[in-house]
Amino acid sequence: MKNQFSGLSETDRSKEIINGLNESAIVSIANCEGKITFVNEKFVNISGYSREELIGSDYRIVNSGVHVKKDMFKNMWRTIASGQRWEGDICNRKKDGSLYWVHTSIVSSIDSQGKTQYVSIRFDITKQKIIESELEEKEQLLSTVLQNLPVAVFAKDIKKDFKWNIWNKKAEEIFGISAVDCIGKEDSDFFSSSEAARFRAKDIEVCNSLNEIEKYEDSTHTLNGFVTLYTRKMVIKDSNGEPRLILGITEDITELKKREIQDVLNSKLIGMGIMSAGIAHEINNPLTIISGSLHLLQKNIGNPEKVLKIAEALKKSTDRMSKIVNGLKRYSRSNSAGEYGHYNLSEIVREALILTEIKAKTECMEITFKCDLDSKIFCDEIEIEQVLINLINNSIDANKNSAEKWVRVEMTEEHSYCVLKVIDSGPGIPEKIKNVIFDPFFTTKEVGQGTGLGLSITKSILEKHDAKFSFANDGGNTCFEIRFKKAEVLNVA
User: Fold this and answer.
1) What is the model's pTM?
2) Suppose 94 and one of 48, 68, 122, 151 were both cysteines; which one would form an S-S bond, judging by CB atoms 3.0 to 4.6 Å apart?
3) Domains (ranges, CATH) in the chain?
4) What is the pLDDT of residues 206-227, one digit of tens each?
């Protein structure tokens, strides 16, 4: 490319350079005493002062006071006095009092009289500084919000071996680890090897997951003690679409879980109270049979055939009582630790029917259950039994005054799911209550007949089991559906 200054004399080239600077930059010259000896038109325009006001003054005429607490100007004069170039950003004040920012370069040179002078070349960066200030304010606001959120927020750098790089105040409170100690460290620096391995496995699972957000409950030991946490994690990608961070939001639900366990126990006690009359009646019947059979035994002690028949009747009655008592013991047993295992779903249903059939009989209602499947689910069997008892009892209560009254429990398999339906003779869920039916303390029963906790607790238990819970109108009848993942799909050891 041809040099645009070729063919020009040295003086002409200097003039061209000066003209170019005057057009693009804010230029001024000061003598060794700091008095302004030259300003170009751009300096006049941006400062708001006339050339006459500027010449002979020093730069304090545009001093904004923004840098008053800094040693910037002392360093600047020290640098240029030593013959070196100084460069930096300066905030100046216009004649009208408004501020402007310039990126400044100052070099020393010798004037025509052999005296030192200082040439300043500036570029207006006010808009850039405004944008930077606004971004800084937003960052500070975001940092303030982040630090004061009522949930723990943390982030791990995937490319740096999952080391933490965000840790807010709530995280400090829950885990007992300060941000200063935490940033740049990893799980193994604070947790046991087994827990750190479990956390790492979960992080890798989140990275490989197709879900946008992974949610889970977990109990762990922290420096503040044993806590139960509800965590949501998601992967943050960089501008190239590559996974960069794992962002986590964690809530301490230890107290909530305690209240939830208490609600479950209260619901059980209420349920046992409601069932007690029917259970007493159901046990009284075999007791009457046993009492009569014993009387017959005395009369027929010499008749082996009759004794055998009476003994069979006695066994049948005692077996019935044993089933009822064992079912009641299972239902009333506290299982706050959450004893999960592989259980046959159809057997859990049959256990629930032992207790609910008693209530159904008192209301002259039929409950049917047909299932030839042997599907297992990974669950807390006591909690799933309670879910079924809640749903079946609700169906009984809702239809006890209906002309047609029945409850049907169906169990099928669909791909990787066990599907359980509780259908009754009711006309379906009214449209006006569909949005509130799972709310705590909502009930359609008369005062004193229900707590409104049944469906709320049922939903909570099923969410904990990662089961899908919904309701629909099945051929015009009320239907609640639960979809459990089969145990072999979960691959839980």
Assistant:
1) 0.49
2) 48
3) 10-129 (3.30.450.20), 149-252 (3.30.450.20), 257-490 (3.30.565.10)
4) 888 867 778 877 888 887 788 8
